[in-house]
């Protein structure tokens, strides 16, 4: 039987969607009582450079942005799914507390070479999270409660304007339906991948974007429900050559982990392949996201004594296996 912890982490309960996001990632040193992990990072010097000035990992996985994104957190509290704009000057990531069912998207922006402090994303005030920035940098997608039924999660979209991101709009069918949708991921040709959360259409879908509209959607057969496992959060490379997805396939090392699948010339996806011990552990390995160029995989790891941190690894560790 699927453990309650696994269910809540990968498929957020409908009850949780009624709660507004509460910002609980505090950067200033004087408010330690407000941070959920009860461990306040020191007041940082100016953060500069691509990926917050972090040195990319040469081999194997490394903790990403310790003291900024990856902080000591309590049981059930995680940083998840960092996404960067194509120019590397904007970042969103989620700070999630599965005990209190609070889901907050955090924003940082690089101006004049210096990154701003973490602050609530503009869409987090209405419960938005799971951001995805389109490869052209002009469209932002995120998941959040429906404006007509807060018990149903769906996909929102915002267009970039000269003054910033425009007011988001809730996508019409076929993307959003009563079945709920989450984990949006935009790719280079404008298509949107997303996960239908319930009902007969539950599973991974792809919706082509034509003239700024989504008029149809198609299932991705390789990632529909199976009797022996579940599929969950995922992220697709900008060129759609591969995707990384969370699953409990029988060969998983622990409580569910990350797999890679490659897209063939005919548009079909290969059987998911376990990313192995460089990424996966005997705990939970989940919440994948990819850098704008597809060169780095970010993911969250939860093992005893090491919870809530984001790791990153070069995708060259597994991309050479592309058939």
How would you describe the overall organization of this protein?
The protein is mainly beta and 323 residues long. The protein is 2% helix and 37% strand. It has one domain (4-321): TolB, C-terminal domain (Neuraminidase, 6 Propeller), CATH 2.120.10. The longest helix has 7 residues, at 4-10. The radius of gyration is 18 Å and the shape is globular. The model is unreliable at 1-43 (pLDDT under 50).
Keywords for this structure?
323 residues; Neuraminidase; 5-stranded antiparallel β-sheet; disordered N terminus
By DSSP (H or I, 4+ residues per run), the number of helices equals 1
Structural class: mainly beta
| CATH-assigned homologous superfamily | TolB, C-terminal domain
Q: In percent terms, what proportion of residues is strand?
A: 35-45%
Q: How is the main sheet built? A: 5 strands, antiparallel
Q: Span between N and C termini? A: 35 Å
Reading off the top of the CATH hierarchy, the class is best stated as Mainly Beta
Compute the number of structural domains: 1
> How much helix is in the residues?
under 10%
Topology pattern, helix = H, strand = E:
HEEEEEEEEEEEEEEEEEEEEEE
What's the number of extended β-strand segments?
22
Query: Kindly state the mean pLDDT as a whole number?
Result: 85
């Amino acid at each position: 039987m699927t453990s309650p912890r696994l269910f809540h982490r990968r498929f957020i309960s409908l009850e949780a969607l009624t709660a507004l996001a509460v910002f609980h990632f505090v950067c200033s040193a004087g408010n330690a009582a407000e941070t959920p992990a009860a461990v306040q990072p020191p007041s940082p010097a100016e953060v500069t450079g691509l990926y917050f000035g972090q040195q990319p990992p040469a081999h194997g996985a490394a903790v990403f942005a310790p003291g900024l994104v990856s902080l000591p957190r309590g049981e059930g509290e995680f940083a998840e799914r960092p996404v960067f704009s194509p120019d590397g000057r904007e970042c969103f990531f989620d700070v999630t507390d599965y005990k209190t069912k609070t889901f907050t998207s955090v924003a940082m922006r690089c101006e004049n070479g210096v990154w701003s402090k973490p602050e609530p994303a503009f869409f987090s005030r209405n419960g938005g999270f799971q951001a995805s920035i389109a490869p052209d940098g002009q469209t932002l997608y995120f998941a959040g409660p429906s404006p007509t039924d807060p018990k149903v999660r769906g996909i929102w979209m915002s267009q970039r304007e000269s003054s910033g991101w425009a007011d988001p709009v809730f996508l019409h069918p076929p993307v959003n339906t009563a079945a709920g949708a989450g984990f949006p991921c935009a790719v280079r040709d404008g298509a949107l991948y997303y996960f239908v959360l319930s009902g007969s259409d539950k599973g991974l879908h792809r919706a082509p974007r034509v003239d700024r509209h989504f008029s149809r959607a198609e299932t991705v057969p390789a990632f529909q429900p199976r009797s022996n496992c579940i599929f969950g959060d995922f992220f697709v490379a900008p060129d759609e050559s591969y995707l990384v997805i969370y699953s409990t396939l029988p060969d998983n090392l622990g409580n569910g982990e990350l797999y890679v699948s490659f897209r063939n010339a005919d548009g079909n996806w290969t059987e998911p392949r376990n990313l192995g011990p460089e990424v996966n552990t005997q705990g939970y390995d989940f919440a994948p996201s990819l850098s704008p160029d597809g060169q780095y995989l970010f993911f969250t790891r939860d093992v005893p004594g090491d919870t809530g941190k984001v790791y990153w690894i070069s995708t060259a560790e597994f991309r050479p296996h592309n058939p």
